[in-house]
């Protein structure tokens, strides 16, 4: 059994002490005027969390997080209400917004029932390319296949990055899907079973419409999950395509945006404003304040690797206060 990381042991002890001395409760009071915007992606239906614990979370962990929010007496608000009340300075104590990125089928199948059970609203930032194509998410499925592989062709390790680059540069959606199946066959991985379980695939258009009909907010995440820093025309077209597809599903006038992979630049605020957007969230970790720019709003990205104690430290505001103070201290020394 591997030895526990010394830093993690020290961190856990420090957080336990902070909790035992009611410092978490104090932090929640000190950050009562900040908005806790949680970020999730998909649920691990097989072993996806082993590939990317920041993207995929086990059903048990997600359920435990939502149960904690209920026990913590969080005021879970819609994105619209949360951002409006943040600007107005009228947030209730322990204000939380739940956001879920991308549009994985697993978020529809496994997160929605838990959210409905607790009566929590949530915003789903949907990319629409894989929703329309209904193929594997290629750049995730290839490394996942290789990770799960029981054999390797000719005893050699295949280069996942090379396979992904090949597919992205020279193949269409069907070709990339075929490449997933051929790679899986070479590796001894059952891609047919993965397809039947809808692993690494997105929800369908009808499922997205059903989610919206059930009262969940749907917002923008580009069509092809790309928003280039240096190509305004392409970036704007990504949003226009995203808007049109959702409008065709009965969801017009989308006005909130999520940067793909969190990559963003200050000059993109002008692009978004020109397209009628009102907000954009990042993956920069932190609690949102009234001072944050409308197109660079931080979130708290939860992870399968985050312990419940670490989650409690983050949601209470303790982590924001501590690490925010560290950042300010370091900046004054530079």
CATH top level assignment of the largest domain: Alpha Beta
Arithmetic mean of pLDDT: 93
Q: Biggest sheet, in brief?
A: 8 strands, parallel
CATH 2nd-level architecture of the largest domain = Alpha-Beta Barrel
What is the helix/strand order? HHEEHEHEHEHEHHHHHHEHEHEEHH
**Low-confidence runs of at least 5 consecutive residues:** 326-334
Measured between the Cα atoms of the first and last residue, the distance is 42 Å
What's the alpha carbon Rg, rounded to whole Å?
A: 21 Å
Tell me the CATH superfamily of the largest domain: Glycoside hydrolase/deacetylase
Shape: globular
Count structural domains. Answer: 2
In DSSP terms (H or I, runs of 4 or more residues), the helix count works out at 16
Secondary structure: number of strands: 10
Q: What class, by secondary structure content?
A: alpha/beta
| Percent helix range | 40-55%
Percent in strands = 5-15%
Q: What is the CATH topology of the largest domain? A: TIM Barrel
Sum this structure up briefly.
The protein is α/β, with parallel strands linked by helices and 334 residues long.
Keywords, separated by commas or semicolons:
2 domains; two-stranded parallel sheet; alpha/beta; eight-stranded parallel sheet; disordered C terminus; single chain; 10 strands; about 325 residues; TIM Barrel
Description:
The structure is a single chain. The protein has 334 residues and is of the alpha/beta class. It folds into two domains: 33-134 and 202-333, TIM Barrel (Alpha-Beta Barrel), CATH 3.20.20.370; 138-196, no CATH class. Helices cover 51% and strands 13% of the residues. The chain contains 16 helices and ten strands. The strands form two sheets. Strands 1, 4, 5, 6, 7, 8, 9 and 10 form an eight-stranded parallel β-sheet that branches. A two-stranded parallel ribbon has the order 2-3. Strand 5 (95-102), helix 6 and strand 6 form a beta-alpha-beta unit. Helix 4 runs parallel beside helix 6 (105-118) and helix 8 packs parallel to helix 10 (173-187). The protein is globular, with a radius of gyration of 21 Å. Residues 326-334 have low confidence and may be disordered.
């Amino acid at each position: 059994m591997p030895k526990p990381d010394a830093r993690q042991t020290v961190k856990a002890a420090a957080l336990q002490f902070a909790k035992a001395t009611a410092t978490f409760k104090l932090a929640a009071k000190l950050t009562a005027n900040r908005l806790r915007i949680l970020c999730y992606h998909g649920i691990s239906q097989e072993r996806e969390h082993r590939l990317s614990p920041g993207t995929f979370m086990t059903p048990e962990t997600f359920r435990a997080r939502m149960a904690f929010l209920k026990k913590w007496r969080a005021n879970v608000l819609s994105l619209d209400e949360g951002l409006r009340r943040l600007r107005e300075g009228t947030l209730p104590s322990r204000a939380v917004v739940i956001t879920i990125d991308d549009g994985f089928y697993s978020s529809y199948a496994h997160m929605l029932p838990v959210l409905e059970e607790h009566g929590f609203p949530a915003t789903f930032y949907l990319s629409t390319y894989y929703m329309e194509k209904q193929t594997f998410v290629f750049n995730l499925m290839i490394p996942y296949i290789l990770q799960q592989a029981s054999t390797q062709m000719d005893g050699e390790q295949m280069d996942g990055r090379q396979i992904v680059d090949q597919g992205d540069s020279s193949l269409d959606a069907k070709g990339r899907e075929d490449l997933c199946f051929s790679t899986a066959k070479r590796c001894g991985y059952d891609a047919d079973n993965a397809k039947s379980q809808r692993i690494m695939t997105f929800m369908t258009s009808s499922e997205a419409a059903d989610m919206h009909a059930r009262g969940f907010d749907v917002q923008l995440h580009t069509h092809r999950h790309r928003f280039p820093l240096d190509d305004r025309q392409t970036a704007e077209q990504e949003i226009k395509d995203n808007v049109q597809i959702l409008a065709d599903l009965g969801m017009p006038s989308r006005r909130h945006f999520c940067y793909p992979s969190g990559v963003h630049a200050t000059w993109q605020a002008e692009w978004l404003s020109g397209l009628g957007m009102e907000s954009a969230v990042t993956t920069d970790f932190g609690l949102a304040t009234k001072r944050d720019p409308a197109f660079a709003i931080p979130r708290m990205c939860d992870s399968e690797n985050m312990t419940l104690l670490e989650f409690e430290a983050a949601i209470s505001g303790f982590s924001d206060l501590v690490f925010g103070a560290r950042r300010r201290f370091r900046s004054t020394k530079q």
